[in-house]
Design a protein that fits this description.
The structure holds two protein chains of two kinds.
Chain A: H1 2-28, E1 36-48, E2 65-78, E3 81-88, E4 96-103, E5 107-126, E6 135-136, H2 154-157, E7 159-178, E8 182-203, E9 206-228, E10 232-245, E11 249-253, E12 267-271, E13 276-290, E14 293-306, E15 331-347, E16 350-363, E17 369-371, E18 394-396, E19 402-416, E20 419-432, E21 439-452, E22 458-470, H3 476-483, H4 486-489, E23 504-505, E24 512-526, E25 529-541, E26 547-566, E27 569-587, H5 594-597, E28 604-624, E29 629-648, E30 662-678, E31 681-695, E32 706-707, E33 713-715, E34 724-736
Parallel strand pairs in A: 6-11, 9-33, 23-26
Antiparallel strand pairs in A: 1-2, 1-34, 2-3, 3-4, 4-5, 5-7, 7-8, 8-9, 9-10, 10-13, 11-12, 13-14, 14-15, 15-16, 16-19, 17-18, 19-20, 20-21, 21-22, 22-24, 24-25, 25-26, 26-27, 27-28, 28-29, 29-30, 30-31, 31-34, 32-33
Chain B: H1 20-37, H2 50-56, H3 58-66, H4 68-72, H5 81-85, H6 89-95, H7 116-127, H8 139-142, H9 162-166, H10 170-177, H11 211-216, H12 231-235, H13 258-261
Helix pairs in contact in B: 2-3
The chains are: A mainly beta, B mainly alpha.
Chain lengths: 737, 312
Amino acid sequence: MSNNKNMSNRKNAAFIILTLPALAFAAAVQAEEGMHGSVTAGVASAQLDYPSAKFGKFTGVTDDTVYLLGGADIQARNGTRYWDFKANDLGLDNRRLTLDGGNTGSYKFNFRYEQQPNELSNNSKTPFNGVGSSTLTLPAGFVTNASTANMTALAASLKGVELGTKRKEGEAGVSYELGKSIDLSFSLKRQLKDGTQSFGAARGFSTVTLPAPVDYQTDEYRAGLAWHNERGQARVDYFLSQFSNANQSLTWDSPYYTGVATTSPTRGRASLAPDNQAQRLNLSGSYNLAPATRLSAVAEMGKMTQNVAFLPYTINAVALPVALPRSSAEAQIDTRLLKLELASQPLPKVSLNARYRYYETENKTPRDLYQMVASDNIAAASPFGQVLTTAAGALYNRPYDSTQNQLNLDGSYNFGYGTTVKAGYEHEKKDYSHRAVKATREGTFTGKLNKRWDAGATLSVDLAEGRKRSNGGYNETWVFEDMHTTGYISPLAANVRFDNLSGMRQYDIADRDRSKQGVGLTLLPHQNLTVGVNVNRLKDAFDASQFGLQEQKNNNYTVNVTLTPEPVSSVSLFFTNQFIVSRQNSRSYAAATKAANSIDPNRDWSARNQDSVDTIGVTANRSFMEDKLLVKAGYGFSRTDTDISFAAGSAVTPAPKDMPGVKSRRTTLDLSATYSMKKELDVQVGAMWERYRSDDWATDGIAPGTSLTGTTGLLTLSASPADYRAVVLRTAMNYKF
Amino acid sequence: MQTGQWKTKEGAGFFGNYSMKKLLPGALQAVFAMLLVSAAWAEEDGFIENVQCNSCHKSSKQTYLDSAHGRAFTADATTGCQTCHGGGAAHKEVAGDENYKGPQKIEAFKVAAGTPGEKNRACLTCHENKLHANWRGSKHDMGGVSCTECHTLHKAKDTVRQDVCYTCHQAKRASSLHNPVMPRNEGAKDCAKCHDSHGGTGPSLLKTATVNDNCYSCHAEKRGPYLWEHAPVRENCATCHNPHGTPNANLLTQRTPYLCQTCHSGSHSNGPLSATGLPPNAPGITLAGKSCLNCHPQIHGSNHPSGARFQR
């Protein structure tokens, strides 16, 4: 950790050393006409009671460290020529640099570079060697066993592993105006992402969490040609994205190897994200049919392809009697978009809008029958072994297609005196393939009222009511028959031909009633006081679903207060409460008694999931000494609570017990002062204190090698919560020119 | 495998036989009706030289000259201020009067008078094309948002960041603060990274045609296409994720395994996974660590020939 941190600090320092001279140069040539801006340089020190990936999730500051503060915002103008340079967080891992320039009315260019870490864990442990590569091996002397309790060398084999990724992105673009009516543009972007992330690997009902490598590269190219005049424009844009992964598969030694290779393979292998490409050709145009009537159209054709060679069914050397139906997926999805829109203001107070949208995905991936070798396990007798050619192990792939037809009609009327009323209707029809519904239809009515008073007070009311219904019914059997072979289905009794309960409704395609309300009110009871209240409610009801999601509510309200008691000071605060509740039903059954259990209502159970979140933010500013000294204070607090409770019928054993609460608390206090030594130079000092506490039954106390009842094993990567208390002190100088 | 079962059968559902074929002719009639009643309401006024504006409005001069507008209108002595605010001749006549009470014969965009459409008209004169081609009829346009509610024009750089969006979208601000899993507050991912507030091609003002196309711009590894696709994943990432923030890991709308169980009641996912199953009790493997993803890590799709259950 400390070596990595030191190296990171050295890289940060080198980055600033290279960048700041450029900024200094910029400052030195300020005499050039029209150049001005500011440069910031300083230092900060972070102290944490425990190293925490949570604290530095997006900055890289996960442990005690000293880092440099650096930034700049410089503009230069010379007639119509200009350039803008901006740099942020140069001393941190999330540094960003942008340079925009050009000659107004002639050409533009832009360069951008940014980094973004995503720290996931810095206290994880794994027994595997080869972290970062596509082959993970167990150390010599590691004792494999079906149960983690009997992996006697596990504790001695564990070593620290940092989980997280770092994204680096560079982009360059240029556009050129050919005369007054034609623009050409081109840009390219490269994004690199590397690091290590967790990856679950199963062996029957045992699992090991692996540190999987991330080494991605995505290149994007965009080219555009646009024509425009006073009444309209037409554009053609081309987009190409190429994704490549340095690791197409991940291989690991199985810690659950029991000495019999046919029932307990020595190694496992999974595919990782395959290389893929996407292209889009977009044609768009807008034309003012009349000064207040505009017709717009977008037509886009896209293609996503992926054709990486398949891995064999199993990494084990035993020859399988069934060959792969093809050597690669030849996966291809074509997309087609058509959007037509007519917006008109036929009268000064009347706005009308009509929009039609068609979007289709046509999945051209060939459909074949593939064998299911779930855990590289080739023995038919084992729980997840393959049973070639005859049974549940053989499945057809399902290349999903969907088609969306959507029509929106909206109108608004301005009554004057800042009052506007809007009403609208949206009708959507979606067609699906390979799913439990063939089509759905949804109609949504919307209404909106806006009122704005001269004194600044505002009122807004939003309403929406929607109903979605399947067209032709919902039938889980269609999915079952679509993915299994007739050889597997035919011998089964009709009442067990399902993978999902027949009453289960997947909520994205289930019948749904949606209701939304929103009210926002801003008042100015005094010239120095603004008070705002914002309330939003959303309710989805799935009344036709016997099982699955039954209801979901997502409500929130916010109170804002801004007080400006005197010109030199201000205080603002907000409080937001979010309350998200969902309720789901299901029915418990045992595989051996599936037919009888699945129709027994005494085996029904339901779960209620409740997320409650409070967020408070307070900021206060005051200037002293005729605005030479500005003092700021900020306080932030967020609380999240997740509670999950159950109810069940008499035949559900054991009777379900409510889950322990999942909690997080984050408190932040920030104080800063900026003193203007002279017109061009500010000195800033600041201190930030932050505390984070969390409880989560999924990770707390779940050490690598946690013993479980029965024969299952759970070999995780981490057990430590990310709690921390952090203090950051900072000082910087800001030079303006 | 059954054949022919995916043909769409038009049935009388909730909406009866109300179809696009019936809606479109009505929409086309509406188009012609709009064209017939459309009218121009442009208005002209006398222009003066810009230097005369600057003689009174001194504080606006430098910031205006540094702005994109300042650069764009450098060449013409009579455009600039008046291009947006209208001709200044009448305004100049009355501005020096001791009874002058405020904006008169000049466009003042911050006052409540006038519809948002009227206030935006000056901006759209130049900005209707290029990046703002989809403004008219967009959610913000129809919602009565005027350009000046978000933009400050007399400024060298008018950078509209997330704080401006939070003025109206207040719940989004809160969700960015608790358990953040998108670096919005570190500056890298502000709202404009995904949304085009001037009217995007996709739903919810997204810049891209679909939610997924937008997500793939950072998560191209999820794009596939895969041999084994997960239907809701292919259709819409937001079926399971809320990109604006949730209390749950990976921006999931609900914790696993319960999120998975809202759709799946298979052989080992049909029972209530409650506190009785927390480790060391069985079936702890479905609750602890990565929950369902302990065994089904490829939930976004798998390209392994044995990846039908997203295990490999």
